[in-house]
Amino acid sequence: MMPPRDDARDMGGPAWRDAVPFLAFLVIGGCCFLLYWVLEGCRETIDIPRSVQWTLFDDYATLSGHEPDEKERRTVLDGYVADEILFRESLRRRLYLADGNIRQRMIDQVRFMVGGSPPDPTEAQMRAYYAAHPNLYRGEPEISFRHVFFRTAPQDPVSILMALRQGQEVKGDDFWMGHDLPAYGQSMISSMFGLDFLHALQAAPAGTWTGPIRSSRGFHFVRVEARTPATQAPYDKVRDAIRADMISEERDAAIAAEVARLRRDFDVAVER
């Protein structure tokens, strides 16, 4: 009868001892390969195509007045590499999230890429758009008026108003736009004198002097000469605006569709 096998003793035999260095070599080699793979996997490549190099060298020649030699070319390329490294580092640190201007420029760039350049609308399409959107191309109401201007509050406003209504000439202060303001649009009046002045002018009776009305510039006695209601602008006068509006709408629609498609990949959490 054979004695029982001693596995522990057999594993410690010469064959096993001879295999240990080989196994250790495999383990160490595998670790080295893994470390190399990890380190190399973290490295990035900065490609500098010939077209970029030519642009960089041309810019250098324009600024310096001579073609760069070999040393200057290396300096130019080193500068490009430094800028690219810092740019990628800024992306890694997500600095665009902290700088509103950079963030907006990136958004605008994507909008431009997505919106593209829609084709020009046809003449028939523009005329149909003009007919369907009359309020977009309607001129604003206009007011023609005269005024006597005072930089500071007049001493005797009642006497001045009575004199003006009696047809007498009253000398006020000089006004940079003159004293007769014909056919001024409401937005222009508001920007020049303020919204309160515009409202008072709209309520003033036509053909008679009234005031003083205070504005952002001073005090005015005014006489409304005429009011012109808003009118539809002729097609030929607003044709370019119609074309721009239609192209803008087409671009906005393309951007909205792309945002809707991308939004499916996002969950939105609004803090309450």
TrEMBL record:
<comment type="similarity">
    <text>Belongs to the PpiC/parvulin rotamase family.</text>
</comment>
<dbReference type="Pfam" id="PF13145">
    <property type="entry name" value="Rotamase_2"/>
</dbReference>
<keyword id="KW-1133">Transmembrane helix</keyword>
<dbReference type="InterPro" id="IPR046357">
    <property type="entry name" value="PPIase_dom_sf"/>
</dbReference>
<keyword id="KW-0697">Rotamase</keyword>
<protein>
    <recommendedName>
        <fullName>Parvulin-like PPIase</fullName>
        <ecNumber>5.2.1.8</ecNumber>
    </recommendedName>
</protein>
<keyword id="KW-0472">Membrane</keyword>
<feature type="domain" description="PpiC">
    <location>
        <begin position="121"/>
        <end position="240"/>
    </location>
</feature>
<dbReference type="InterPro" id="IPR050245">
    <property type="entry name" value="PrsA_foldase"/>
</dbReference>
<dbReference type="InterPro" id="IPR000297">
    <property type="entry name" value="PPIase_PpiC"/>
</dbReference>
<dbReference type="GO" id="GO:0003755">
    <property type="term" value="F:peptidyl-prolyl cis-trans isomerase activity"/>
</dbReference>
<keyword id="KW-0413">Isomerase</keyword>
<feature type="transmembrane region" description="Helical">
    <location>
        <begin position="20"/>
        <end position="39"/>
    </location>
</feature>
<keyword id="KW-0812">Transmembrane</keyword>
